Protein 1
Amino acid sequence: MSSQRVMVVNGPNLGRLGVRDPEVYGHDNLEKLRTLCEQWGTELGFEVEVRQSDDEAEVIHWMHEAVDKSLAVVLNPAAFTHYSYGLADAASQVTDAGLKLIEVHISNPSAREAFRRRSVISPVATGTIAGFGFEGYHLALRAIAAVE
Ligand code: DQA
């Protein structure tokens, strides 16, 4: 049997990891996150692909691709979290298809500015992990592996 494939999707400004607000997001960059996710995936028996886009349409199309290819998704929607009903509708198609979609945030948005306290993605996600830095992606992959 081929290993389960997981799409790890990062939204806007996460290509700037390491440079952007290191006191909030840490000093490691997206390449480091990619390496870690691939390594964690291998340990869990997953084929992991890490993507990043600043473009809402592209992220939405990746959700459609996940449905069409039956991929589980780890999604850090970044700022789209707080206002993108288009992405929420796309994410709900993933979970409606019976696929897991874990929402991840590097920081804990609930402990930050008021506008970050609302997620339009959480209601359609399988679950949400926030506030544990890059380790949150590891926890999300472990949740995909552990939970039916
Ligand atoms: C973030 C939190 C969001 O509020 C913010 O817009 C981001 C990153 C996080 O990973 O902590 O870009 O999703």
Protein 2
Amino acid sequence: MCGIVGFVGEDENALPFLLEGLQRLEYRGYDSAGVAVVQENHLTVEKRQGKLQRLVEALTTTSVRGSCGIGHTRWATHGRPTDQNAHPQLDCHGQIAVVHNGIIENYQTLKAELMARGHHFRSETDTEVIPHLLEEYGGLDDLKTAVERAEARLTGAYAFLAISATHPDQIVAVRRSSPLVVGLGERTNYLASDFTAFLRHTRRAVVLDNGDLAVIRPWSVEIHDANGVAVERPVLHIDWTLDQAERGGYPHFMLKEIMEQPEAWADCLLGRIERGRVVEEALGLTAEELKAIRRVVMVAAGTAYHAGLVGRVLVESLAGIPVEVDVASEFRYRRPLLEPGTLVVAISQSGETADTLASVSLAKEMGLKVWAVTNTVGSTLAREADTVGYTYAGPEIAVASTKAYTTQILLLTLFAIALAQAQGRAYPELAEQVLSLPEAGKSVLSAMQGLHGLGQELAQHRDVFFIGRGLDWALAQEGQLKLKEISYLHAEAYAAGELKHGTLALIEEGVPVIAILTQPELADKAISNVLEVKARGARVWAVVSANLSGVPADRLIPIPATAPLLAPVLAAIPLQLLAYWTAVSRGEDVDQPRNLAKSVTVE
Ligand code: M6R
């Protein structure tokens, strides 16, 4: 997820607007930033690795004036965060500039083709193919037609803005899946990834549809749909405050990030499954490397560790390869016995967790190969590991991890299928079902309105228990952590069959128990455990797959039926929302819970 902005007007205020807009979009990415402004028939381009402030400082001594420009704040996906990889990206002669959000899936093929035709590439990004395609298709003469022709060559989910030195009064914009909105001003129009960027200047806006191509001038906005037909899109009046707009209108980043999950899952899956097979290279691994793996050890902390617990079941079930999962702070000190043929999988949203990094160093000292599962391109983990699979969830701002967790599980699911493929076992149906998860996620989110009330109820209690078996136990552990960390209630997760070995003593009249039942094979046993706690007076709320019946809970929270191995990503959503609404009911600081930091870079 990156932030893009554009300005085209009759006065020369492009630069101040671009910097202000980028500052408002910095929550979408902050590893580098850049702008391009058309100035006297040439492009002035400035880009800096690091926070936006570095770019602002670089521009204080220049006198860039222009009435048309584009800007970008980056969350790296393809290519490390460097000055060269920052956007805008340019054609060979620096006369066409492009800023882009999303992923161009087929960029390697296009890059090879363009290089063979003599184009000179300067970055590692997927984006750079766009300005070179525009150059190839005559963008300096007719920018709109060149964009149409280039767009027909691209696959992926993205939005981009293009300007050229020869068109000082227009921006051509394309939206395919990634968000893009137009702000309508007085003889000035704006473009941005979301309304926040231009709300101080105008509240009249048009949301581009998927497949739209728009030509924006100071006095006009022409929109063509995916079939090239000129269309009018409704003009909206946005009455959010600036603060609300930054969070997409949601009261907290956590809720925004929970709601973003279907989009994050689609980004994570993009280009990784083809014709019922996982594309190994798209995970950062080769079929040969996967074939050589005899054992897997996963190391991580907190929520990422819980993703590893899900990953263990997936890999063992699908690939039949033994997996250990370890909390990084334990792994690094317990002198683990690791033999050749072991792949160490280090999972970390930030890629900066000190204990996880120390575990990686230890594994490397022992001569083992490390595969990183991380959300952060350019992080220490991404640099230290031998190879990386990115989760592509976009920046996660709330301390409580939500979309990073479910994308970690998705990537581990793909890893499990790829490992099975290497053993000669393909799972084409399962791979296809994985692709339907973003849609299923949307329906879970729209069905969860009632959890608000359950959160209010839960907020009245002191202790909450989570129970489940198999994958549901792994998920229960994440459910209790979410609740604890933002609502400050005491919560514990138990393997449901373990209750009678001690914890059952704590169950008394009215104690809330959240039971998770998504695994048909274990359903009868899990139902007995629900009966056990109910017999002691517990009030049971059950997250249940729609294909399981007869669960004797006080309240059912159904999720759509899917392959049992894929249920955790869907079942995670009600657990996240339950924690969220409980914390809100208690009036806690949801996004910044006490005593916690987003990234734990110390031991
Ligand atoms: O950045 P990481 O994934 O390495 O962070 C690990 C944990 O600190 C993190 O998952 C933490 O448990 C979450 N904030 C909990 O929601």
